[in-house]
Amino acid sequence: MNWLWTLIIGAIAGWLAGTLVKGRGFGLIVDIIVGIIGALIGGWLFGRLSMPLGGLLGQLVMATVGAVILLVIIKAIKSA
User: Fold this and answer.
1) pLDDT in tens, 6-23
2) How far are the Cα atoms of 19, 26, 45, 61, 75 from residue 51, in angstroms, in the given order?
């Protein structure tokens, strides 16, 4: 069941990040991948800042922030 929640949160976070950075999502599979990688980045970042967020909403916020950071970095590398 945890994998199902991971995929759902990843899809939502990836879509939100794509919408914030690009103006639209990337499609379900890429949104899930971006969201899961974003969750890793967000979890690491919020942990380093000693700001752990709990619960489903906290996980979604961390994943979305991490995914936005990931997309901004990728966008900067592509435009350089």
Assistant:
1) 889 999 999 999 999 988
2) 25, 29, 9, 12, 27
